[in-house]
Amino acid sequence: MNNDLEQIAERLESRQTLQALMPKKAWDADLDGRIAKLPPSARPAHIALKAGLHLLNESLAASHSYSQEIEDDPTGCYWHGIMHRMEGDFSNANYWFHIAGSHPAMQKLQDRAADWVRNSTILNDVPDGAVRDGLAAIARQTRWNPSAFTSLVSLQESGKISEETRSALEYVQHLELTELFSHTRHAARDWME
User: Fold this and answer.
1) Computed over its alpha carbons, how large is the radius of gyration of the chain?
2) φ, ψ dihedrals at 52, nearest 5°
3) What is the set of domains in the chain, with CATH numbers?
4) Which pick of 23, 46, 115, 123 has the fewest CB atoms within 10 Å?
């Protein structure tokens, strides 16, 4: 089991492209099948790991089916919220972020995202407007605000702003997925042995 899971994680982590803000299909259909074949488990940490693996592979429906199994688990709720954001159901995403509460992965995410905004040239490359202001707010805030980020993604997907901002938002989403996956993987480490 450990070998299969490690190979899946390595494949996802070696992607050369970032996950789309609103993906249309699974990134790697074969990989999606391999994730589905991982042994079943009733432990929330294991189910959350499957939800996360599917979401990293941009397989929204499969991720959703697993996160729905653990709606009383903060990690499952966080994956659930991201999945709804990625499908464009922004109010439902915010509901699940609220249920997830102040998730432990959020502090590392906030630190990494703020550091990236402060120390990269990204703000110089993003046109003036709400997305630039939102990215600047990430650098100033002390706690990660998934609903504020969802608002930025919603604005991007509305088509009312420049496509130049998309890559910045995709990178912040990448940081979010990376931190939540790291947390989830650590919580499910017994399943990986």
Assistant:
1) 16
2) -65, -45
3) 2-103 (1.25.40), 105-174 (no CATH)
4) 115
Please name which of 77, 69, 73 lies closest in space to residue 94, comparing C-alpha atoms. Answer: 77
List the Cα angle 154/159/163 in 5-degree steps.
Answer: 95
Average pLDDT, the chain: 94
CA–CA separation, 86 vs 120, rounded Å?
Answer: 25
Among residues 137, 99, 102, the alpha carbon closest in space to that of 117 is found at 137
Residue 19 near residue 58, CB atoms below 8 Å? yes
**Cβ-proximal residues to 142 (8 Å cutoff; 6+ apart), any chain:** 110
Q: Where are the alpha helices (DSSP H) in the chain?
A: 2-13, 29-36, 44-56, 60-67, 74-87, 90-100, 105-119, 122-125, 130-140, 146-157, 166-187, 189-192
